[in-house]
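Hi V.,

Quick status before I head out on leave. The structure for the redesign project is tokenized and pasted below; the design run finished overnight.
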């Protein structure tokens, strides 16, 4: 049987980057960027204590998750994570010669900003009781994408 070359889609590359920052770049054959993203992800993850905080959070031990993370490091994670998503998505669109839509990056940038705010406040009483440093940013990323989508729609109408 003849092996066919399969094209990857921007959404597929976005999903690979959600799995691990850098995977989308590797799938796009952007090897240097992919390796850099993976190294940064491991560095921030290890220094910030993210994986053990994930385990504690899923076990319902939010207070331990808050105590284990290093906020000086995990503050970098949302921007790295969302930028890797955007880069994989955008690079796949360029490689497929798809047209760039106006203000397409705005939902991604809002997601990075709002998720960072989620990290900042994840140890405060309202968020720390149930969400902590893992679930609060996950909730905030959806809020960021939603708000960014609204801002993009407004900008498309105004400009």
């Amino acid at each position: 049987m003849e092996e066919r070359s399969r094209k990857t889609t921007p959404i597929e590359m976005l999903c690979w980057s959600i799995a691990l920052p850098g995977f989308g770049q590797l799938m796009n054959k952007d090897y240097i960027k992919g390796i850099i993203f993976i190294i940064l992800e491991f560095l921030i993850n290890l220094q910030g204590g993210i994986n053990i905080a994930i385990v504690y959070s899923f076990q319902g031990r939010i207070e331990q998750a808050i105590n284990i993370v290093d906020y000086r490091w995990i503050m970098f994670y949302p921007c790295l994570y969302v930028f890797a998503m955007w880069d994989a998505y955008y690079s796949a669109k360029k490689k497929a010669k798809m047209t760039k839509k106006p203000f397409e990056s705005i939902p991604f940038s809002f997601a990075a900003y709002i998720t960072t705010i989620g990290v900042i406040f994840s140890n405060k009483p309202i968020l720390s009781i149930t969400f902590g440093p893992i679930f609060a940013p996950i909730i905030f990323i959806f809020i960021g994408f939603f708000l960014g989508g609204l801002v993009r729609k407004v900008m498309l109408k105004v400009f």
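Above is the designed sequence. The chain has a mean pLDDT of 93.

G. will cover questions while I'm gone.

Best,
W.
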